[in-house]
């Protein structure tokens, strides 16, 4: 199998950028070497910090303790409300009730 000489530095850069960890182990007398590559989560943002879907119902205001906006690097904008029980609920920032809750929390 031929690998382009230009492709090798590219794969090395990708490996370094993604923070890979390599492990080598020998099998039966050291004749065959197996290399395992484990990829870590790339970047500082985890999927739990982005909203992929929004709740379809209005959350009672008295159940909400706090909120935060999702990061601008997420594929969809979102407001995450934190409930008294510690649940995180993704909401659509353009919904009127979401804007009302944010305004209410900012004033108090």
Automatic annotation (TrEMBL):
Which parts of the sequence belong to the Chemokine interleukin-8-like domain? 47-105
Primary location = secreted
Q: A Gene Ontology CC term for this entry?
A: extracellular space
Q: Which InterPro entries match?
A: Chemokine_b/g/d, Chemokine_CC_CS, Chemokine_IL8-like_dom, Interleukin_8-like_sf
Signal peptide residues on this chain, from the entry's feature table: 1-19
For this protein, the record's Pfam families field holds: IL8
What keywords were assigned to this record? Answer: Chemotaxis, Cytokine, Disulfide bond, Secreted, Signal
SUPFAM superfamilies found in the cross-reference section: Interleukin 8-like chemokines
Q: Does the keyword field hold Secreted?
A: yes
* Gene3D superfamilies with a match to the protein in the record: 2.40.50.40
One function term, GO molecular function aspect: chemokine activity
Cellular location(s): Secreted
What is an annotated GO biological process for this record, any one?
immune response
Its family remark reads: Belongs to the intercrine beta (chemokine CC) family.
Q: What is this protein called?
A: C-C motif chemokine
Query: What broad taxonomic lineage does this protein's source fall under?
Result: Eukaryota, Metazoa, Chordata, Craniata, Vertebrata
Write the gene name: CCL14
């Amino acid at each position: 199998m031929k690998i382009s000489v230009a492709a090798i530095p590219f794969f090395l850069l990708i490996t370094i950028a993604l923070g890979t960890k390599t492990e080598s182990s020998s099998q039966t007398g050291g004749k065959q070497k197996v290399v395992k590559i484990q990829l870590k989560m790339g970047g500082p943002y985890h999927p739990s910090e982005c909203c992929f879907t929004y709740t379809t119902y209005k959350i009672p205001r008295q159940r909400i303790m706090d909120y935060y906006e999702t990061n601008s690097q997420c594929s969809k904008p979102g407001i995450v409300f934190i409930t008294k029980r510690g649940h995180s609920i993704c909401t659509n920032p353009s919904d009127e009730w979401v804007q009302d809750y944010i305004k209410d929390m900012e004033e108090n």
